[in-house]
Amino acid sequence: MLTHLLSMFASERTALALVVLNAILLLFVLRRVRRAFLAATSGASSAFSTKPSVALTPAERASYLKICETLVAEAEAATRADSGIAWVPRGSERGARVFAFTDPKNPVIKIKGVVELDVPDISLLVKHFVSNTTTEKLTHNLGKLDPMLISAVVLGEVAPGGKTSNTQLEWGTFRVPPPLATRDFVWLSHQRLTTDQDGRGMFVSLAHSVARPEAPDTWRTRSVVRGLISNTGYVFKQLDAIRWELTYVVQVDPCGAVPKFVVNLVATDQAGVAANTKEVVEEVQAANAALGGAAARGEAAWALAPIEEVLVDATRRVPLGECGAGTLRWRYWVADASREVRAATDDGAPVDGRRHRDGVREGSVQVRGGDTELVWTRAPARGLASLMSWMGDRPLCVYYQVLRP
């Protein structure tokens, strides 16, 4: 009798699972059809149908700057043991210590990930964050940190920035696991090099959701769900001459049909962004050491060439502008030497691929002169890696220098 009941229970569970699976598949198909219809009838593929332009009133600017002061104070408090915030340890994520806080004002829990890293030159790190003043730079730097990024745009400046600060409005779209709809966020972005309550060096890069008419909700027109960001970002605190502590604080609500308990179940995974950021900072430092060490080796020409960056997912064309006829030389460095990256000019002349010291590769080619492009290519992911990566193959950052004829 017991065996019979268990058999019936198992068959009912199997039937229920099949019903749920079919419902999910049907939802996925319908959503794909809807997106295809919207794309066909709208005549555009990007979530940003126009290039937005923000015209802020003095009152709006003052309001945003006041929000920034609150964000900095709250972020700094999140790093202090005496702040009164009841952080609960949640283990670790890719080397980052993870903590959680149940916010009585928000159904989504707040998470922070903490790592330590060496930052011999804080100006390089600050430049990485405060230089996102154009859509191109914002897309590049967000793409380095977040492989889920689809597109991003700078809506406009809130306050004049400089070498150590920046405040602007941004809009970004991110992919999520199917069958969920794409998410987008509109946020106030603020970066500042300052000091904490103890007088130690501190750099913050923070984001907080805002509503702007220039960035309307696109659910009805693009099938994109608008999510909410609550004071999320990075707090770097100086520990000694070169050692810094990085705290990544995150509280993001994807909204839509995702239950809040599901969001909270997987929220701790976001602490891994602290580890991602540490890797990127170390990568930039290593690239500058490999390529920027030319002066110490007596390579005067390369020492004067600026170090550029490009994200390469499959093929990426980089305009070099007007070049004279003669030998075009370039060299590049990537963090993972096993990743296959090739460069060529726009007329198809390939790089020779000669490996140089410190993992740097060099190439040269004869060009006819005029407008020239450097074409970077990378082999796409294959096999299981391609099948399992719902978020797409992560772009690879190539650090390079060019010597024109």
Walkthrough of the structure:
There is one protein chain. This protein is α+β, with helices and mostly antiparallel strands and 405 residues long. The chain has 2 domains: 58-288, 2-Layer Sandwich (Alpha-D-Glucose-1,6-Bisphosphate, Chain A, domain 4), CATH 3.30.530.20; 293-403, Jelly Rolls (Sandwich). It is 31% helix and 34% strand. The chain is built from 9 helices and 20 strands. The strands form 4 sheets. Strands 1, 2, 3, 4, 5, 6, 7, 8, 10 and 11 form a 10-stranded mixed sheet that branches. A hairpin with a 5-residue loop joins strand 4 and strand 5. The longest helix has 41 residues, at 2-42. It is globular, with a radius of gyration of 24 Å. The chain starts with a helix and ends with a strand. The model is unreliable at 1-51 and 387-392 (pLDDT under 50).
Short description:
It is built from nine helices and 20 strands. The protein has two domains: about 60-290, START domain (Alpha-D-Glucose-1,6-Bisphosphate, Chain A, domain 4); about 295-405, Sandwich (Jelly Rolls).
